[in-house]
Amino acid sequence: MNSSLANLKSLVQSSKTVSGKEKEEILFALEKLEKEIEEKEFIMRRLKKDKSIIVNILQTAITDLEKSKEKIEESNIQLRKHQKELKQKKKIIENNSQTLKENLKKLEHSYNELEDFTHIASHDLKSPLRSISGFAYLLQKKYGNKIDEEADKYLDFIVSASGHMHEVIEALLKYSKVGKGQQQFEEVNLNKILEVTLDNLSKEIEDNHAKVYSTSLPTIIGDKISLVQLFQNLIANAIKFKSQKNPVIKIICQQQQDQWQFKVRDNGIGMDEHFNEKVFIPFQRLEDEKRPGLGLGLAICKKVIVVHGGTIHFENNPEGGTTFIFYLPVSQSQVQKTKIEVSDSTLNK
Amino acid sequence: MKVTSLLCNDTEELREKLTRVSAEGYNPTLAIVFSSINQDIAAIQAIFSHYEIDLLGCTTAGEIVDDGLYEESIAVLLFDINKDYFRVIQKPYEYPDVEKVASEIGKESKELFDKPGLIVLTSGLAINAEKMISGFRKALQGNVPIYGGLAGDDLRMHETYVFSAKDLSKKGICSLIIDTEKISINGLATSGWEAVGIENTVTEAQGNKVLGINGEKAFTVFSRYFGFSLDGDSDQDKLITLQTNYPFQFIREEGYKVLRSPLLVDIDEGSITIAGSVKKGDKFKFSYSPGFEVIEKTINEFGSFKNKIEEADGIILFSCKGRHGAFGPLLEKEIKGIHHFWKKPLIGFLSYGEIGDLGNGICEFHNETCSLVILKEK
């Protein structure tokens, strides 16, 4: 209690000049005053305490913020350093990319030149070769069995070699034609392409007791002649490399988002998956040189597919044989069409 | 339901006053008692047992009776309520089982009444009150009214008690389960503390213990922010003031803030224990005491509440001890203002935590609030 107020209170209480009622009123007023003083003193104390605490909190907060600022500045320096390094790396990548582009262009140019050379060379070689094989044939016919045995043998070699060379040149011409300007891209119904293919291969199919099954095939945008070549090479290959069993070839097609997946599955002798790259390179005949063929069929297939914007690879079937899997793009007008229903329609020729 | 409030300076006065009311023909069946830890709690229990009055009580850090705030006294609210309308359940808990124990009480409440309402008193220091509320919620489901307070010990920060007529516990939950189809329970809680300084991050935590703040020991940061060092005995008082007056304002993921007062400080460990769950990554700011205008704001808020809940038989007030530290003698103005609206028997106490509704219709655990509960027989 405030000491002056306490003194005043006791003074009032002991006073003989102040009446009882007046005493009561004065004491009530003094108590009220005392409470107000107590409140004011508390407010002053709290304000003082709050002030010191708030100042301290704010000072500490400022110090902490400054520390954070320093850390942020340090991070910014690091960030700028990284940005500079990134910029340099970006420049190097851009330079490399430019070099790569130029090299690609050069490569493309060389490739085109090579293709043109192949085409021209094959075409120009045809005429002298025709003369060589024609005259060799005449020589054999006119002087065969008339010189001596050794001469007959040499003549046989010339005729046979020129015939083989003719085949090679024909195949090279075919290969070089794929993707050349004369191709016409249009809507092609692959069911019809398959029919033509099977007609072309009817003798091989019959001779080898082969069976060809296919699901319904889609219509795509492509070059008819190249596509016939594609199917023909794959089916002929399957027949050529048959196993002990009669060849059974199944063609399955299904839509996978914006591309068609085609599977040409056979029950032949199969191929080592190790050769997945090699098999599509021209004149690569793997290790078995006794197999018939020039080694251009699958190279042509790959070229046809690449020209049509697709990819090809093969897998071995667990039960034997090989499956060639290739993808061709779904034309934009067909993207919305319902997936072609797989049926077991048989096209056995 | 007739309700009477009593203020007693000691157990003798309590005995006398009870004898008097009994002689006047008033036969209460339930008593809520808020008592200073200096009082003889066992004697209080014996007196109410003698009169066969059910008891729900706890120790405090200051007692409120009607429109006055008192120290080291006993505040009593008597009810002549039908014994079928309520039940007092007290259960002890061992940390960290508080959620399980609360859930058990919740289940029993649901078995007792279709629509139970709870007034919960619990130990004020060794409790994770958030877990306790979670336990009640799991068992009761739906938005059941739960109000209450965490017991105090006149700021000794040593040990607090809850008690019924038979049990006395340092670690216990004492609950008054009320059939709200017979007795309505409504309440409102209000705060007023402001945040200050930068946003801090809890970098290490365990249960309701903050071990690390911004990568430093929690107590190191706390003492630096409040300019506090332990040089002498007087600093212990300052530490207690800081604990009760300057709560942490945790910023919940949902965006709202909850105030958590530091309950205990372990200087050796460098930790600060708060009355609710805390986890690594939690964000908070320190607080400073609110302006004195908050008292008027609080009174106005309760005035608006009075317009919604016009009638009361009895009133209970749980006011945080931190508010007393911040408002001092002016806190009585707040109490007077609240009592003035209903002019009905009111008791309360200065608590170490409050359970109430901040106006969003959900009863939750808070610190630094003034939580009001209105009881009225239907």
Q: Residue share in helices of chain A?
A: 55-70%
Query: If strands are numbered along the chain, what order do they take across the biggest sheet of chain A?
Result: 2-4-5-7-6
Per the principal axes of the C-alpha atoms, what is the gross shape of chain A? Answer: rod-shaped
User: What's the shape of chain B?
Assistant: globular
Share of residues in strands of chain A: 5-15%
- Oligomeric nature of the chains: heterodimer
- Distance N terminus to C terminus of chain B? 9 Å
Biggest β-sheet of chain A, characterized?
5 strands, mixed
Nearest-angstrom radius of gyration of chain B? 20 Å
- Looking at this structure, what is the CATH superfamily of the domain at 186-335 in chain A? Histidine kinase-like ATPase, C-terminal domain
Number of strands of chain B: 26
What is the CA–CA distance across the termini of chain A? 122 Å
User: How much of the polypeptide of chain B forms β-strand, as a percent range?
Assistant: 35-45%
Topology:
The complex is a heterodimer of chains A (349) and B (378).
Chain A: H1 3-14, H2 20-143, H3 149-177, E1 186-189, H4 190-200, H5 202-207, E2 211-214, E3 219-222, H6 224-240, E4 248-256, E5 259-265, H7 297-307, E6 311-316, E7 322-329, H8 332-335
Helix pairs in contact in A: 1-2, 2-3, 4-6, 6-7
Chain B: E1 3-8, H1 11-23, E2 30-36, H2 41-50, E3 54-60, E4 63-65, E5 68-70, E6 74-79, E7 86-92, H3 98-112, E8 116-122, H4 129-140, E9 146-150, E10 162-164, E11 168-169, E12 172-179, E13 183-190, E14 194-206, E15 209-213, E16 216-217, H5 218-225, H6 234-245, E17 248-251, E18 257-260, E19 262-266, E20 271-274, E21 283-288, H7 293-308, E22 314-320, H8 321-327, H9 331-342, E23 346-351, E24 354-357, E25 363-366, E26 370-377
Parallel strand pairs in B: 2-3, 8-9, 22-23
Antiparallel strand pairs in B: 1-6, 2-6, 3-10, 4-5, 4-23, 7-12, 8-12, 9-24, 10-11, 13-26, 14-15, 14-21, 15-16, 15-20, 17-18, 17-21, 19-20, 22-26, 24-25
